[in-house]
Design a protein that fits this description.
By secondary structure, the chain is of the alpha+beta class. Helix content is 22%, strand content 20%.
């Protein structure tokens, strides 16, 4: 049986799909159904694309900036 970590997955088709992938990943890692994507196209967002609470440390709000520079997402 092969590990998920040893498999190669194709990159997302565009930056929106990449942000959705980051959103899904961090929502699961943080175990927070209240995790949200921040901002809309063209809207200033201070570098935060996804934010939520980590259930291991609910006293803080966490933010993530999604960067996909190597695949030409712009």
């Amino acid at each position: 049986m092969s590990s998920v970590l040893s498999r190669h997955f194709p990159p997302p088709a565009d930056w929106q799909a990449f942000e959705r992938l980051c959103f899904d990943l961090f929502r699961r890692l943080w175990r927070d159904h209240g995790t949200q994507m921040h901002g809309r196209r063209g809207q200033p967002q201070a570098g935060v694309d996804v934010f939520g609470e980590n259930k291991d440390d609910a006293s803080r709000l966490y933010g993530v900036q999604c960067k996909g520079k190597d695949e030409g997402y712009g």
